[in-house]
Amino acid sequence: MKKRTPVSEIMSKNVIALMRSDDLYRAEKLFKKHNIRHIPVVSEESIIGMLSYSDLLRISFADATNDERDVDSVVYNMFTIEQVMTKSLVSVSSKTTIKEVAEILAKKEFHALPVVDDSVLVGIVTTTDLIKYLLKQF
User: Fold this and answer.
1) What is the mean pLDDT of residues 75-79?
2) What CATH code is carried by the domain that includes residue 28?
3) Does residue 103 contact residue 130 with C-beta atoms inside 8 Å?
4) Any transmembrane segments, and where (predicted)?
5) Which of 25, 124, 42 is nearest to 87 (CA)?
């Protein structure tokens, strides 16, 4: 196993992203269509937040109502992406080593890191990317 392999070797480069003006319906569609669990929220090319599928599930269950309409449609109309996304982000550069990424993910309570170079979102690395990389080493 190479000790200095950069995260750019395993990150997803074709990032599915949301704009702050998108709604939670669009987010849910993207999660399901692309079978992903984390979507960066961007303004231009700069990342301003991260939305996880767990964030959607949390508000759907937390705010269930007695309304006869679909719970998701009621809840999705109550919140904006900016209200639900995580704003305090930890990011890494494309030159950060895979080992350093693994250390960050092992210590924190999240499962994806945006990869940012010169304030521009260039990729995303997830625990799944890391596990796939480790499995290739055996």
Assistant:
1) 82
2) 3.10.580.10
3) no
4) none
5) 42
Bridge partners for 115 per DSSP:
92, 123
Q: Is residue 2 part of a domain?
A: no
Domain that holds residue 72: 7-136
Predicted TM-score (pTM) of this structure? 0.85
Give the residue carrying structure tokens 């924190």. 108
Instruction: Tell me the torsion sign for CA atoms 20, 24, 25, 29.
Output: positive
Q: Is 67 left (phi over 0), alpha (psi -120 to 50) or beta?
A: beta
The answer to whether position 1 is within a domain reads no
Confidence bin at 3 (pLDDT 50/70/90): confident
Query: Can you tell me the distance from the alpha carbon of 52 to that of 59, in angstroms, rounded to the nearest whole number?
Result: 11
Residues paired with residue 114 on neighbouring β-strands, in sequence order: 124
Determine the angle formed by the axes of helices 24-34 and 53-62, rounding to 10 degrees.
130
The CB density around residue 117, as the number of other CB atoms within 10 Å, is 14
